[in-house]
Amino acid sequence: MIKDMRIPNHVAIILDGNGRWAKSKGMPRNYGHTKGSKNLEIICEEAYKMGIEYLTVYAFSTENWNRSEDEVSALMKLLRNYMKTALKTAVKNNMKIRILGDISRLDQDLQDSIKNLVQKTAEHTGLKFQIAINYGGRDEIIRGIKHLAKDIKEERLQAEDINEDIFSNYLDTTGLPDPDLLIRTSGEMRLSNFLLWQLAYTEFYFADVHWPDFNKQELEQAIEKYNLRDRRFGGVREEK
Ligand code: FPP
User: Fold this and answer.
1) Predicted model pTM
2) Tens of pLDDT, residues 174-215
3) Is 64 part of the annotated catalytic residue set?
4) Is the CB of 20 under 6 A from ligand 1?
């Protein structure tokens, strides 16, 4: 890693390519998801060691329900297992876990373990780790607008007072800084409905490797590339 590199404060990752990774090894897609979820634990630790404060990942999108029944149930099983082991890891590593997305569509037991995990880690001061589950950027904006409309109707908010900061408070990411760097693995160059509002000024980095192969070196490479770019906010150059 190059010395004196600027470490992005908030990194968001679209975990892509588990299926292709498994296929390339002659294995079923669900094997790729299992490997992908293990890799996530490793990258969480590496990210924090590097000085990244916020890490946000896209684990299950609102569109992922359209996958085969077998794959959806395998992903739900993985999430279930993850919520159990994550509590131990989060305590060991002082991680604060938060969920983005509408979890009301998940099975009750999974909702309960998610809530437990969020509650038990709420006071932790290490890596702030956001997992997007049943998340879609458009869905998040619509849910936010409905909430905001209710507040206007019930006179807690005046329409003329709405601005970007106020609207941000109605999103799942309320209180989080916007991502500085977005990484998508597997060579695809799409946003796939991830953090549509929050990525307005974010730098994008596309890695060719599939998610299960995205390791510490790949993360360092993404940060090196991020350092080579001039970050511009509407033409104003950020202080180096
Ligand atoms: C993309 O690969 C990955 C997903 C749809 C799910 C990501 C999920 C995990 C890494 C595991 C579960 C997460 C947690 C937090 C435990 P893909 O299936 O789209 O791959 P493909 O594009 O090659 O088909």
Assistant:
1) 0.94
2) 999 999 999 999 999 999 999 999 999 999 999 999 999 999
3) yes
4) yes
